Amino acid sequence: MEFKVGLAQINPTLGNLERNVGVYRRTIADAHAKGVNLLVFPELSLTGYFLRDMVPEVAQRLDSPVMTELAALSRQVSLVVGFVEETDDYRFYNSAAYLEDGQVKHVHRKVYLPMYGMFDEQRYFASGDKVRAFDTKFGRMGILICEDCWHLACGYVLANDGADCIVAISSSPGRGPTPGHAPKLKTAETWERLNRICASFYTTFIFYANRVGYEDGINFWGGSEVVAPSGETVAKGDYLTESLVTADVDSNLVRLERVSSPLLRDEDIHLTIAELKRIRDERFRDQY
Amino acid sequence: MSGLEINTDLVRKILVGFIANETRKVGFERGVVAVSGGVDSAVVAYLATEALGPQSVMAIWMPYKTSSAESERDAKEVIGHLGIGSLTVDISPMVDAYFREFPDASKMRRANKMARERMTIAYDHSARLNALVIGTSNKTELLLGYGTLYGDMASAINPIGDLYKTQLRQLARAIGVPKQIIEKDPTADLWPGQTDEGELGFTYAEVDRLLYHMVDERHTDAELAAAGFDPKFVARIRQMIQRSHFKRMLPVIAKISERTIDRDFRYARDWGR
C-alpha cells in the first residue's frame, strides 16, 4: 500500500468557525492538487485551542452542516479533522474524526485531558473512554490527540490493535527556548523524541500534525512530521510557520521493520494484562 | 547563570511573530513604543520594527526636565538606527502644573505621576495613529512589582514580559542594540542619579538567578538555602512578589451574578480573532 499523507500545519482563528472552515477548504483543495490521499489537521484546528466558555458555542454534532460538508470533501481526500464534538447527551469532547469517501469512519475522543500548568481541558471537556484502531483505504490506523500520546499505553493499545499508522494531532504550546545551535524549543525536542521512540518501538508510522499561530501570546510551534517505523523522520514542517507537509508512505516499510524487529509478534499481552490486573487490584483494593 | 540562557534566534523569531500576529489579528498595522533610552524599550523597538516595518512603528520620547542627557542620546540613537517615526513630548509642564497644587508630594508619588502621564500620551497617540501600545515591562520587574500600575505597566501587548532582565540583555546583544545601552546601569530616570539596582538593593543578575529557581523551577526555601541563596534575600523577594500580585491582576470584582467577568465568564482575549 502506497499513499501520500499531508499534514496541514495551519493557523486557526480562535472561536471563528467560519474563517477556519475557509482555511480547511483551501487546504483540502491545495492538498488535493498536490496528490495527497490523506490529509491530517491538528487538534481543535476547526475551532482554535484555548476555547474556555466558547466550547459549547463552537461544538459540532457529527451531522452538523460543517461536518457534512467536510465529509463530502473526503470523497476527494481522506481527512482527519480536529474539532469540538457535541453528543446526543450534550457532552463536549475534544475529538478527531476520520472522514473517508463521504463517511465518518471513526471518531477518537481525547482520553487524557491535561489539567495542569497552562491547561484546563477537564473543566470544559468530557474524557473519551476508548482507544481503538480502525480500517481505512490506506490500511489500519489509530488516532491519538496530544496528551494521549504522552501516555504510552495509548500507542501500545493501538499498535497491538493492529494499527500500521498512528495519527497524532496536537495544538502544542511552545515553551523553553533552550540555547544551542538549532533554534528549537524544549517542547519540540520532547515531542520529536517521543515520536521517534513510538515509531521505533511500536513499529508503526507516526503522522504528527501540530498547528502554528498565537492565542493570547501563546505560540504553537508547528514542526509537524512523518516518522517511519525505523524511527527516521521522513518529512518535517518548519517551526512556527504555516505549511503543508507531505510524504509518500509505503506500508511495506512497516513489514520490513517488523521482519527485522518483530516486537509486536513477540508482545505478550497476556502478561501485560495479568500484571496490570494485579496492579489494579492492589492499588484499588480498598475502593471496592 | 544556568537556566537563564536563551536561544536568542528562536526567541527573536517567536517575539517578532507575536507582535505581527497579535497586532494584525485585532485589526491594527502599527505600534507605539514609549522609548526611554534603556535596554527594555530599545529591544521592544527593534522587535516591533522587524515585525511591522519601520514606517509602522512610532517611538515616543517623553522626557521630564530632570531626564538625563544620556537617556536622550540613547533613545535618539535607537530611533535613528531603526529609521522609525518619532515624537518628543516633554511631560514637565503637565507634571509640574499638577504638583504646584501638591508641593509636598513624595518622590514616589511624583515618579508614579510621571509614569502615568507618559501612559496617557502613549494611549493618545495610539488613538491618533490607530496603533497598539507595545509594552516594555520585563519579567523581573513584573514579578517584583517594580513598575507603576496603569503607568509603564500599561500596554496592549507585551513581547518581553516573560523574559528576565538578564535574558533581555542576551537578546539585546543578538539583535544589535547599541552596546552602551546594554551595559549602562538600568534606571527609571525619574530623578538624577537614580538606578534600579541602587533602589532595589540587589543586582538583576542576583535576583534573576533567584527568581528563575523560585518561580520557574518552583524550588522551596529549603532547597534555595541549600543552593546557597541567603534566606533573608529569599524571604524578601517572596514578599515582594506576593505583595505586588495585585498589579498583575484585573481589579477585584464583587461577585453578584452567576456569571462574573474573569471568574465564570471565561474567554481568551483573542476571542474570535
Explain the overall architecture.
The complex is a heterodimer of chains A (288) and B (273). The mean pLDDT of chain A is 96. Chain A has a single domain (2-261), classed as Nitrilase/N-carbamoyl-D-aminoacid amidohydrolase. Chain A is of the alpha/beta class. Chain A has helices at 17-33, 55-58, 65-73, 121-124, 147-150, 152-160, 186-202, 252-260, 263-266, 269-284, and strands spanning 2-9, 38-40, 78-86, 92-100, 103-109, 133-136, 139-145, 165-170, 205-210, 212-215, 218-221, 225-227, 233-236, 243-250. Chain B starts with 7 loop residues before the first helix and ends in a 30-residue tail after the last helix. Chain B has twelve helices and four strands; from the N terminus they run H-E-H-E-H-E-H-H-E-H-H-H-H-H-H-H. In chain B, helix 3 links the parallel strand 2 and strand 3. In chain B, helix 1 packs across helix 7 and helix 2 packs across helix 7 (165-175). Chain B has 273 residues and is α/β, with parallel strands linked by helices. Chain B has a single domain, classed as HUPs (Rossmann fold, 3-Layer(aba) Sandwich), CATH 3.40.50.620. Helix content of chain B is 50%, strand content 7%. The A-B interface holds A 13-16, 50-54, 174, 177-180, 183-185, 213-217, 219, 239-240 and B 5-7, 9-11, 13-14, 17-18, 21-22, 25, 157, 265-273.
